[in-house]
Write a structure and sequence with these properties.
With about 180 residues, this protein is an alpha/beta fold. It is about 30% helix and about 10% strand. Helix 2 runs parallel beside helix 3, helix 3 runs parallel beside helix 4 and helix 4 runs parallel beside helix 5.
Length: about 180
Protein backbone atom coordinates (compact mmCIF):
# COMPACT_ATOMS: atom_id res chain seq x y z
CA UNK A 1 0.00 0.00 0.00
CA UNK A 2 1.63 3.24 -1.14
CA UNK A 3 -0.94 5.67 0.32
CA UNK A 4 1.13 6.49 3.45
CA UNK A 5 3.93 7.64 1.14
CA UNK A 6 1.51 9.89 -0.72
CA UNK A 7 0.50 11.56 2.58
CA UNK A 8 4.15 11.86 3.56
CA UNK A 9 5.16 13.41 0.21
CA UNK A 10 2.21 15.82 0.19
CA UNK A 11 3.09 17.14 3.66
CA UNK A 12 6.85 17.65 3.31
CA UNK A 13 7.82 21.27 3.69
CA UNK A 14 10.15 23.27 1.46
CA UNK A 15 13.12 22.64 3.76
CA UNK A 16 12.97 18.87 3.26
CA UNK A 17 16.33 17.85 1.74
CA UNK A 18 17.12 14.22 2.47
CA UNK A 19 14.94 11.24 1.63
CA UNK A 20 16.21 8.15 3.45
CA UNK A 21 13.87 5.21 3.20
CA UNK A 22 16.35 2.36 3.29
CA UNK A 23 14.93 -1.14 3.78
CA UNK A 24 11.30 -0.03 4.07
CA UNK A 25 9.73 -2.71 1.82
CA UNK A 26 8.59 -0.10 -0.69
CA UNK A 27 7.44 -1.54 -3.99
CA UNK A 28 7.51 0.33 -7.29
CA UNK A 29 3.97 1.74 -6.89
CA UNK A 30 5.14 3.54 -3.76
CA UNK A 31 7.48 5.61 -5.89
CA UNK A 32 4.51 7.14 -7.70
CA UNK A 33 4.16 9.56 -4.77
CA UNK A 34 7.72 10.90 -5.05
CA UNK A 35 6.97 13.45 -7.79
CA UNK A 36 4.60 15.09 -5.27
CA UNK A 37 7.59 16.31 -3.22
CA UNK A 38 8.43 20.02 -3.49
CA UNK A 39 10.56 20.77 -6.53
CA UNK A 40 14.32 21.15 -6.20
CA UNK A 41 14.48 20.47 -2.48
CA UNK A 42 15.98 16.96 -2.30
CA UNK A 43 19.78 16.69 -2.30
CA UNK A 44 20.12 13.12 -1.00
CA UNK A 45 18.00 10.05 -1.74
CA UNK A 46 18.66 6.66 -0.14
CA UNK A 47 16.28 3.92 -1.23
CA UNK A 48 18.64 1.00 -0.64
CA UNK A 49 17.07 -2.43 -0.16
CA UNK A 50 13.59 -1.66 -1.50
CA UNK A 51 11.67 -3.28 -4.36
CA UNK A 52 12.17 -0.53 -6.91
CA UNK A 53 12.65 -2.74 -9.97
CA UNK A 54 12.55 -1.39 -13.51
CA UNK A 55 9.12 0.15 -12.98
CA UNK A 56 10.21 2.20 -9.98
CA UNK A 57 13.47 3.17 -11.69
CA UNK A 58 11.48 4.51 -14.64
CA UNK A 59 9.25 6.52 -12.30
CA UNK A 60 12.31 8.07 -10.66
CA UNK A 61 13.99 8.75 -14.01
CA UNK A 62 10.98 10.22 -15.78
CA UNK A 63 9.01 11.91 -12.99
CA UNK A 64 11.18 12.47 -9.92
CA UNK A 65 14.70 13.40 -11.08
CA UNK A 66 13.53 16.07 -13.57
CA UNK A 67 11.81 17.88 -10.67
CA UNK A 68 14.78 17.54 -8.33
CA UNK A 69 17.65 19.32 -10.02
CA UNK A 70 19.57 19.81 -6.74
CA UNK A 71 19.94 16.10 -6.09
CA UNK A 72 23.56 15.07 -5.59
CA UNK A 73 23.55 11.66 -3.89
CA UNK A 74 21.54 8.70 -5.16
CA UNK A 75 21.71 5.36 -3.36
CA UNK A 76 19.80 2.51 -5.02
CA UNK A 77 21.67 -0.54 -3.76
CA UNK A 78 19.79 -3.88 -3.83
CA UNK A 79 16.67 -2.44 -5.45
CA UNK A 80 16.10 -5.22 -8.03
CA UNK A 81 16.89 -2.86 -10.89
CA UNK A 82 17.46 -4.66 -14.17
CA UNK A 83 18.73 -3.54 -17.55
CA UNK A 84 15.81 -1.32 -18.62
CA UNK A 85 15.70 0.48 -15.28
CA UNK A 86 19.47 1.01 -15.27
CA UNK A 87 19.46 2.44 -18.79
CA UNK A 88 16.51 4.70 -17.94
CA UNK A 89 18.30 6.05 -14.87
CA UNK A 90 21.49 6.69 -16.82
CA UNK A 91 19.59 8.35 -19.70
CA UNK A 92 17.87 10.63 -17.17
CA UNK A 93 21.31 11.66 -15.98
CA UNK A 94 22.20 12.78 -19.50
CA UNK A 95 18.88 14.61 -19.93
CA UNK A 96 19.12 16.41 -16.60
CA UNK A 97 22.67 17.52 -17.35
CA UNK A 98 21.75 18.88 -20.76
CA UNK A 99 19.02 21.01 -19.16
CA UNK A 100 21.53 22.51 -16.71
CA UNK A 101 24.63 22.88 -18.85
CA UNK A 102 26.73 25.11 -16.60
CA UNK A 103 25.03 24.67 -13.25
CA UNK A 104 27.29 22.20 -11.47
CA UNK A 105 25.27 22.40 -8.25
CA UNK A 106 22.42 20.57 -10.01
CA UNK A 107 24.38 17.41 -10.76
CA UNK A 108 24.16 13.95 -9.31
CA UNK A 109 27.75 13.30 -8.24
CA UNK A 110 27.37 10.04 -6.29
CA UNK A 111 25.43 7.13 -7.80
CA UNK A 112 25.30 3.74 -6.06
CA UNK A 113 23.63 1.03 -8.14
CA UNK A 114 25.45 -1.88 -6.56
CA UNK A 115 23.95 -5.33 -6.05
CA UNK A 116 21.17 -5.04 -8.62
CA UNK A 117 20.57 -7.24 -11.69
CA UNK A 118 22.40 -5.29 -14.41
CA UNK A 119 23.88 -7.55 -17.10
CA UNK A 120 26.38 -7.35 -19.97
CA UNK A 121 23.94 -6.07 -22.66
CA UNK A 122 22.95 -3.05 -20.54
CA UNK A 123 26.55 -2.27 -19.64
CA UNK A 124 27.61 -2.41 -23.29
CA UNK A 125 24.67 -0.20 -24.34
CA UNK A 126 25.55 2.25 -21.56
CA UNK A 127 29.23 2.32 -22.58
CA UNK A 128 28.52 2.81 -26.30
CA UNK A 129 25.41 5.00 -26.36
CA UNK A 130 24.91 6.85 -23.06
CA UNK A 131 28.35 7.37 -21.47
CA UNK A 132 29.66 9.42 -24.43
CA UNK A 133 26.86 11.95 -23.82
CA UNK A 134 27.58 12.44 -20.12
CA UNK A 135 29.75 15.56 -19.60
CA UNK A 136 33.38 14.88 -18.73
CA UNK A 137 34.04 14.22 -15.03
CA UNK A 138 30.47 15.05 -14.09
CA UNK A 139 30.11 12.01 -11.86
CA UNK A 140 32.48 11.71 -8.93
CA UNK A 141 31.47 8.17 -8.07
CA UNK A 142 29.54 5.41 -9.86
CA UNK A 143 29.29 2.10 -8.00
CA UNK A 144 28.21 -0.92 -10.02
CA UNK A 145 29.74 -3.77 -8.02
CA UNK A 146 27.76 -6.92 -7.32
CA UNK A 147 25.69 -6.84 -10.50
CA UNK A 148 25.30 -9.68 -13.01
CA UNK A 149 27.74 -8.61 -15.70
CA UNK A 150 30.98 -10.41 -16.49
CA UNK A 151 34.56 -9.28 -17.00
CA UNK A 152 33.75 -9.07 -20.74
CA UNK A 153 32.40 -5.55 -20.25
CA UNK A 154 35.86 -4.29 -19.29
CA UNK A 155 36.78 -3.39 -22.88
CA UNK A 156 33.52 -1.52 -23.47
CA UNK A 157 33.81 0.50 -20.26
CA UNK A 158 37.53 1.13 -20.85
CA UNK A 159 36.79 2.44 -24.34
CA UNK A 160 33.96 4.62 -23.01
CA UNK A 161 36.19 6.15 -20.33
CA UNK A 162 39.02 6.70 -22.82
CA UNK A 163 36.69 8.50 -25.22
CA UNK A 164 34.95 10.49 -22.49
CA UNK A 165 36.05 10.45 -18.85
CA UNK A 166 32.50 10.87 -17.51
CA UNK A 167 33.38 9.56 -14.03
CA UNK A 168 36.25 10.09 -11.59
CA UNK A 169 35.69 6.85 -9.63
CA UNK A 170 34.04 3.86 -11.25
CA UNK A 171 33.65 0.69 -9.21
CA UNK A 172 33.08 -2.43 -11.31
CA UNK A 173 33.16 -6.02 -10.22
CA UNK A 174 31.71 -8.96 -12.07
CA UNK A 175 29.74 -11.75 -10.41
CA UNK A 176 32.97 -13.74 -9.94
CA UNK A 177 34.62 -10.93 -7.99
CA UNK A 178 37.00 -9.69 -10.72
CA UNK A 179 37.55 -5.95 -10.95
Amino acid sequence: DHRPLENFAANCGPGFQSLRLQNCDIYHRGFLSFPMLNENTITNINLNCNYLGDEGAKILAESFFPCQMNIRYVRLKECYIRNDGFLGLMEALVVSRSRNKNKVKHNIVYYDLSCNVITDPAMITFAKEIAPRIPEYSLDYLNLIGNWFTANIGNSMGNALTANAFCRHLKLEDTCGST
